[in-house]
Amino acid sequence: MSGVELYIEDEAAMLQLGQALAEQTAGHGILFLQGDLGAGKTTLSRGIIRGLGHTGPVKSPTFTLVEPYEINKHRVWHFDLYRLTDPEELEYLGIRDYFADDDLCLIEWPQQGKGYLPQADIEISIKAHNDGRFVQLLPFSTRGKSWCAALSA
Ligand code: ADP
Ligand code: MG
């Protein structure tokens, strides 16, 4: 199984894709979210976090760098590295600790942390197309491959 590309026509469908991803990951793994400002990275993250059972707001972590969630027995760390000026800053944030327990890590703008982030299970790239979005999912691990296979079925 290699990558999957889906056309996601609106915000509601994006949230649904997040729900499907939440079910696949079962709250574990590393997901990179790539795409321009306004592509839909935070929207998809919101779908994933809600899909795990979170009922409150999911705001963009642009200024905080990371927003933590405790959902039932799961922990989710939602990163937005857009404002990181140097990937080395992640070292001072204790970035390694976030990946230690196989929690779910959603990382917007991962290219900003290049060299300081582990390999993702999947890299998700979102591109505007007409009124919707093309969402490409590329797996980099065994479980990432099985998530992609399930989403393309
Ligand atoms: P990013 O985090 O990539 O900067 P956001 O998720 O904050 O982007 O914003 C994306 C915007 O695009 C929101 O206004 C959202 O309603 C809209 N959007 C999200 N997914 C879709 C989609 N599949 N089709 C059309 N519009 C979408
Ligand atoms: Mg965002």
Question: Strands, helices and their partners?
Answer:
Layout: E1 4-8, H1 11-25, E2 29-34, H2 41-51, E3 66-71, E4 74-80, H3 89-92, H4 95-98, E5 104-108, E6 122-129, E7 132-139, H5 142-152
Parallel strand pairs: 2-5, 2-6, 4-5
Antiparallel strand pairs: 1-7, 3-4, 6-7
Helix pairs in contact: 1-2, 1-5
The chain binds adenosine-5'-diphosphate (ADP) and magnesium ion.
Explain what this protein looks like in three dimensions:
With 153 residues, the chain is α/β, with parallel strands linked by helices. The chain has a single domain (4-152), classed as Rossmann fold. It contains five helices and seven strands, in the order βαβαββααβββα. The protein has helices at residues 11-25, 41-51, 89-92, 95-98, 142-152, and strands at 4-8, 29-34, 66-71, 74-80, 104-108, 122-129, 132-139. Strands 1-7-6-2-5-4-3 form a seven-stranded mixed beta sheet. A hairpin with a 2-residue loop joins strand 3 (66-71) and strand 4. The chain is globular and about 40 Å long. The mean pLDDT is 96. The chain binds adenosine-5'-diphosphate and magnesium ion (MG).
Which features would summarize this protein structure in a list?
Rossmann fold; single chain; binds adenosine-5'-diphosphate; 153 residues
Short summary of the structure?
This protein is of the alpha/beta class.
The overall pLDDT, averaged over residues, is 96
CATH topology: Rossmann fold
Uncertain ranges: none
Number-wise, the strands total 7
How much strand? 25-35%
**Shape estimate:** globular
In CATH, what is the homologous superfamily? P-loop containing nucleotide triphosphate hydrolases
Family: Belongs to the TsaE family.
Pfam family, one: TsaE
Keywords: ATP-binding, Cytoplasm, Magnesium, Metal-binding, Nucleotide-binding, tRNA processing
Protein name: tRNA threonylcarbamoyladenosine biosynthesis protein TsaE
